Amino acid sequence: MKTLKLRIKDKHCKVLDQLASDVNFVWNYVNDLCFRHLQRTGKFMSAFDVAKYTAGSSKAGLNLHSQTIQAVTEELITRRKQFKKAKLRWRVSDPKCAKKSLGWIPFKASAIKVEQGQIKYGKQWFGLWDSYGLSRYTVKTGSFVQDARGRWYVCLAVDTVKLEHTTGKTSIGVDLGLKDLAACSDGTVIANPKYYRKYEQHLASAQRAGKKKQVKAIHARIKNSRQDHLHKVSSALVQQHAAIFVGNLSAKKLVKTKMAKSVLDTGFAALKTMLRYKCENAGVWFFEVNESYTTLTCSHCNGDTGPSGLGGLGIREWACMDCGTVQDRDINAATNILRLGRQTLVGGIPVL
């Protein structure tokens, strides 16, 4: 399974905006219904219970497919259980409201039809840019989604056509970082373009001037540039190697520190996600290893002679006191990650 995201042509925005407003109406109705039922009976309603109250909505004038109404209900029940809340946040449709919810229209495979670069939902055909060749795929489920600039996309969960097996025969360790995006055990250093830092001054000027459209455009440019770079890096690694081992550096923990801006600008969490699903599709081994002490340990003699503590963060190169080997801090860590990954494969993964 993988997800394809395709751009809907702008001439259909008004229709999709109205459908999204209907989805918000269903969400808010079911949200309030479940909360009132909980207050009266002390019990939560299931998606099956809610279906009795939403039956016949499409025939009554709601311009949504019946399966979309079911998908909205199921999503609300799932998120309510996930966040353990009796009532979820209201979805706002008013475009003038600062808290307006981005458009979202879920559906199932039987609710749509794909033909000749168009997708049919209900009685409406929507033109799109079919860059994937949808006729080659079997659609399972999907949704129409809106971005911050008001542009619409369709996201389709599909069965993969076939595995694109890699031609690489080597294994590599990858040490993620902030100064550079990654350092590899073969000596390759992947630079960090720092796209947010590059456009930070332009973004600040647009924000001070109150130019909301320009602010959204700059944010989109930063996001698209970063994703393009990460896709190119991850694809190159998957095509060249048969096994990839990455340190378990946690972006979730680092964003709570003073380095939050740099962590988010680097995007190494997205890089790990891309590597994971691309490796699955290409038949490449992917595994995260515990990178504790990988900087401290010499990759040549396994001696604990490397820089440690906060005072050693600025030391980028060091000479091992046991064997005399001069080590680059990041490449040494990547080599140790590769060694730990190979040991894991030999010894077996404990979870399995």
UniProtKB/TrEMBL annotation:
Residues covered by the Cas12f1-like TNB domain: 268-337
Whether Transferase counts among this entry's keywords is no
What InterPro entries does UniProt report for this protein, alphabetically? Cas12f1-like_TNB, RNA-guided_DNA_endo/Transpos, Transposase
Query: What Gene Ontology molecular function terms does this protein carry?
Result: DNA binding
Keywords in alphabetical order, please: DNA recombination, DNA-binding, Transposition
What are the recorded Gene Ontology BP terms? Answer: DNA recombination; transposition
Q: Which domain of life is it from?
A: Bacteria
Pfam families per record: Cas12f1-like_TNB (PF07282), OrfB_IS605 (PF01385)
Q: Give all residue intervals belonging to the Probable transposase IS891/IS1136/IS1341 domain.
A: 163-256
Name the protein family.
Answer: In the N-terminal section; belongs to the transposase 2 family.
Q: What is this protein called?
A: Transposase
Q: Which organism is it from?
A: Alkanindiges illinoisensis
The opening ranks of the lineage are: Bacteria, Pseudomonadati, Pseudomonadota, Gammaproteobacteria, Moraxellales
